[in-house]
Amino acid sequence: MNEEKQQTVSRRKASVTQNDTRAQTDIAEHTGQGSDLRPKDTRWFTWNITRSDWDILIGSTTIKLLLYPSYRSTDFEVHRNWLAITHSLPISQWYYDTTSEWTLDYPPFFAYFEKLLSIPAYFIDPKIVDLQNLNYDSWSVIAYQRTSVIITELVLATALLRFIPGSVDPSVQRIISAALFLHPGFLIVDHMHFQYNGFMFGILLWSILMARNGNKLASGILFAILLNFKHIYMYLAPAYFVYLLRAFCLTPSGQVEIKNFLALANAVIGVFIASLGPFAVMGQIPQLLSRLFPFTRGLNHAYWAANAWALVTAVDRILLKYIQFTGAKIPVDADGVASSSRGLVGDTVFAVLPQVKPIHTFIITIICQLAILAKLWTNPSTKSFLTALTLCGWTSFLFGWHVHEKAVLLILVPLSLLAAERHAYFRTYLIASVAGIFGLFPLIFTPAESVVKVVYSALWLAGVYGLLSRRVYEYPKSAIYVVIDLGERAYLAGFIPLLAFVTLMSLRSHRISSPSNGEDTTSSNLEFLPLMVTSVYCSIGLIWAYLRLGFIYLFEESTYQGQLSTIQ
Amino acid sequence: MDGLAALPSEGAIHKRASRKRTSSLASNDRSASSPPLPALHHWLGTPPLSASSSRDLAPNSSLPSSTSAVTSKNLAPGSPNAHRRSFSALYLRESTPGRKSLRNRQASNASIASTYTNHGGGENLHKSLLRSKRSQAHQEHAENGSMGRRWIRYMHKRGLKSWVVPSAVAFATLLKLALGVGSYSGQATPPMYGDYEAQRHWMEITKHLPFREWYTYDLQYWGLDYPPLTAYVSWICGYIGALINPAWFALDSSRGIETAGSKLYMRLTVVFFDLLVYVPAIIMFVKVWQGTRSKRTQEQAILLLLLQPALLLIDHGHFQYNSVMLGLTLLAVNFFATGNDLLGALCFVLSLAFKQMALYYAPAIGSYLLAKCIYLGQRHGTTLFTRLGLTVTAAFALLFLPFYVPPFAPGPLHILHPITRIFPFSRGLFEDKVANFWCASNVLVKWRRVAGEGETGRRWLVRTSTALTALGFGPAVAGLLRAGWTTRIKDHTPNTKIQAKAKADGSETTLASNPPPFLPLLSYALLASSMSFFLFSFQVHEKTILLPLLPLTLLMSAAPPGSALHNWGALGNNVAVFSMWPLLKRDGLAVPYVACVVLWNRVIGYDLVGCWEGGVVQVLSLAVYAAALALHALELVFPAPARYPDLFPVLNVLISTPVFVLIWLWSLKCGVEVAWALGGLGGSSKDRAGSPAAVEGKGAVDVEGAGTAVEGGAGARRRRVEGTGGYFD
């Protein structure tokens, strides 16, 4: 009887695995003898998409489709305008056109990408690509642009799928991949606010995947391509540079691998020629660069990104209030007072503290990055590279000049790949994700969408926590860990009252602003307060998590070997 | 590992089979009280039989229909049973000892199984092989074939069992909120706007006006025409909303207000009442009616009901509070199943008092309660009848209190105001293009011309539609009453042990608080009654298809993908959403329409082609879907011709109506089958006692000594009876 049962079970198992090629692959990989079982896996275009993967895609796409009519920022019109520019103007005019105030300020690959998108757009609705048709928001353009985001996001989905086979624990990687694909950051920034981050982070993840799989040349090329899509990825470039130089162009003993070096150099130069070449021929490089790097902007973006400067600015504002209140004899900058009363708009000028110049931010960023890069140089493993990449982006985010809050994705995406390494990483990931995503909340301020963003993020967080926390749990080793643990829990719990405060304030401001729009000074101050509190509270978490990860990376990494370290 | 769990161990099978045998001999053996198959519908308090048995092969339709189909096809065409296919399938299923164990054995070892079944003959070997293969595929599909199932399985394996229902509810809520971001009925269409503005306007007037003016204030602008419970709920919503922002509900000046804040508040009230009434009702339904099914099946049923696209789109997209009315009716049905008839009646009164559309269910529920009174016999029945009458009257009197009691109302006759507002017979035969009998046949027969002009014509139409509706639900009502009569408890000869015991104890509560054996008839009666109202009654909206959809979806919720019942339910749901397409399109809900339908079909694992058996319902579904897709494609490519501006809606009606008619007929057929099976098993009809099925049914009844006995007996009947419902193809 038992035999019979066993037979049935094994047969059932077989039939299950037939439907689940991934499982088959896993078994084959673990047993190491199934080379004939997985002939398909060697081909690059076999995605091993399981039915659960389709489920995730369908489920998330449903929500994204429902959010078609949701709030969209000016970025929507920016991208529509770029469609129009690239479609109706010759390439020589792209970086000169000023019909709309939203001029083209992304690198050429993105312009080419928009050109590509504009071709079907013309056939769907010619008005989409009409240059003079500013602020066009008919259903056709909304549906077209939103759909293009969803479709190009498949680049991200495929990269994440490819991360699963070949990882140390595919089931954990599957959770991480799903968590990244469903990341609230993408939902908020791409599918509501409107941008193409999913697409571009897809390229970044392909590049990281290539690095993990040992194809460093491809990794470098993909990153060069990515840089030519959006230059914000320069935040990550130092880590790439050091990693590729050390691990690809030099042998472990320090000899130059001239063949590798030339291959990489030529490839990268080729990418840049493909991108900038046409403009170099036309002699437009200075104009292009002036569009890409407008140094006329202020220290902080419209909403303060949750970085170190938000904290410094807040301290300055509090000091100013203190001085105005007590009348203490401390010199106060008149511009700073004006700047503080303007709330969020315009340049940030400090009233009490010394002014920060771009050069200062640059120096601080470089110093912090150097420490990380030195560590990467001594230990150029994949995991070390991923950590250094995260920390590089993080440093730039925290100390950079005029950082956008959306740049927090540069931290959260690579950090996600490290989430299940060990408890310390998971905790860092948790704090950074909560603080980073909450820091994105002010992007969406319309009531209905605000509820969606909060509920979605909470659901996502619960899912990630429920699925990952138990796998990485470690018992605290000493009293200091217990104290840190308690502090972090208290910090995370603090987001609930913060959310309540922000919600109440927005209710209040709605109530005040709806009958009369007259007194803008009081109302703008009231609107400004929750934003400031959000920025400051999130920046505390992000700075703490940064220090946490930096400490682990610089001092603990050699003693502790996580999952990823086994992959070389 | 799942496969392992799905298989009961051989030992258990043998034990059960031997139990079965001993039980039929020793009728008083209480340890053998578990029936050979888990009962179909159970209510609170009945323990599940065992983990293995409830997982694998539970109720009505979870027996893969292919098995039955093949089985019935095995019968020689000339055999006397051939014309009673569905019953013969059941007959075979139940007359073979340990049928279920056999089936599993077939799955594991077909040759042993085929010899064991005593079917004899070499050809049976091949047939049972085929059968086992098919059933295996079906079971595979049922376990792993749907998105919901896969997700539930994943969660269970991760040790997150207890999170399944909360996260399902949370996901559904997220979906509702995301739907709420989109447009609603009548958005930005002054001066009258749409249903959204009507609901908002009622909050506005109930907040500001005394009771006496609620049903009389400026009737031209969305005068209140729903029963008092809606008015009270509106009053609460308006009161709280005005606390947040008085501008949202300022009298008169807030008409047509479309600020983002007020819209969110309105949307949130729908989500809130949905979570308050409908979601608990669903969870209770699953616990009460599917208590013996595996936990995963129950959770899948919850998911299926939560994400039902028609209700989602109408309540959270178009904007209405249907889920409250449906949820209250569902609660009523749940309470009937637990034996709390008075509480159930109260819930149904609340449902009626929330939205008069719940009247569509009234024939079914009324006749069920009447049948129960008949079933209980003269003494207990009269008591129950009196109590029900008092409860219902008192509830209505209380609900309408402010409209006829002097301090609030000018006088008792003031109650005519709400009544005439609630039942508007002065409107047309149907509204817009609705997929019912009148609108569909209007293509050929111009009913207005047939009826004649003016008041007489209108009266003729009202009378004809009422008569047709009554004809439509008549069989269901008659079936319920007859079932109550045939299974009634005679004062002198109790026909089951439980009745005898109850009589001996003299406890009235035991009987009255147990559901009657004809309870499963109720679900089909609800479907037949509401569908006949939808098809034939006067003044029907396209949205009212939600009412027949509720019982249909409840029926399908526990059926495995690929079974006939599942196919009927999915077809009904999909066509219902399709029939509302013109409305949804007008509301700007085209994209949510596609998204919700695709998601729901994925979640329930609807796979028409993968489980193809060529049954009636599958062929019908394919044809209907092809037509619907063709119509959508046509509408996308070509504008409506100027001569026939309503061409597309009319085509839509012509595609949808036949499906609804067939579902109505199907529900009647199932009802008749169920009623017939009940009659055939009743203690009064001794003539059928010789047939094997009846013997087994009797055996099951006899075995159960006390306490849960009615469950067993009724369960056995119900199982048979529900099964017949599942095999219509």
UniProtKB/TrEMBL annotation, chain A:
Query: What keywords were assigned to this record?
Result: Endoplasmic reticulum, Glycosyltransferase, Membrane, Transferase, Transmembrane, Transmembrane helix
Q: What's a GO cellular component annotated to this UniProt protein?
A: endoplasmic reticulum membrane
Q: What is this protein called?
A: Alpha-1,3-glucosyltransferase
Q: Which organism is it from?
A: Ephemerocybe angulata
What reaction(s) does this enzyme catalyze?
an alpha-D-Glc-(1->3)-alpha-D-Man-(1->2)-alpha-D-Man-(1->2)-alpha-D-Man-(1->3)-[alpha-D-Man-(1->2)-alpha-D-Man-(1->3)-[alpha-D-Man-(1->2)-alpha-D-Man-(1->6)]-alpha-D-Man-(1->6)]-beta-D-Man-(1->4)-beta-D-GlcNAc-(1->4)-alpha-D-GlcNAc-diphospho-di-trans,poly-cis-dolichol + a di-trans,poly-cis-dolichyl beta-D-glucosyl phosphate = an alpha-D-Glc-(1->3)-alpha-D-Glc-(1->3)-alpha-D-Man-(1->2)-alpha-D-Man-(1->2)-alpha-D-Man-(1->3)-[alpha-D-Man-(1->2)-alpha-D-Man-(1->3)-[alpha-D-Man-(1->2)-alpha-D-Man-(1->6)]-alpha-D-Man-(1->6)]-beta-D-Man-(1->4)-beta-D-GlcNAc-(1->4)-alpha-D-GlcNAc-diphospho-di-trans,poly-cis-dolichol + a di-trans,poly-cis-dolichyl phosphate + H(+)
Q: How does it sit in the membrane?
A: Multi-pass membrane protein
Q: What is its EC number?
A: 2.4.1.-
Where does this chain mainly localize? endoplasmic reticulum
Automatic annotation (TrEMBL), chain B:
Query: Which pathway is recorded for this entry?
Result: Protein modification; protein glycosylation
> What does the entry list under GO cellular component?
endoplasmic reticulum membrane
| Main subcellular location of this protein, as a coarse class | endoplasmic reticulum
**Compositional bias of kind Low complexity:** 23-34, 57-72
Keyword Kinase in record: no
For molecular function, the Gene Ontology terms on record are:
dolichyl pyrophosphate Man9GlcNAc2 alpha-1,3-glucosyltransferase activity
* Listed EC numbers: 2.4.1.-
What transmembrane ranges does the database entry give?
Answer: 163-184, 232-252, 264-289, 301-319, 331-354, 360-377, 384-405, 518-538, 545-569, 589-609, 616-638, 650-668
Q: Top-level EC class, please?
A: transferase
**Where does the source fall among the domains of life?**
Eukaryota
Q: Name one Pfam family in it.
A: Alg6_Alg8
Give UniProt keywords alphabetically. Answer: Endoplasmic reticulum, Glycosyltransferase, Membrane, Transferase, Transmembrane, Transmembrane helix
Cellular compartments annotated: Endoplasmic reticulum membrane
Q: How does it sit in the membrane?
A: Multi-pass membrane protein
Family per similarity comment: Belongs to the ALG6/ALG8 glucosyltransferase family.
> Which PANTHER family does this entry report, sorted A to Z?
DOLICHYL GLYCOSYLTRANSFERASE, DOLICHYL PYROPHOSPHATE MAN9GLCNAC2 ALPHA-1,3-GLUCOSYLTRANSFERASE
Q: What is this protein called?
A: Alpha-1,3-glucosyltransferase
Tell me the organism.
Ephemerocybe angulata
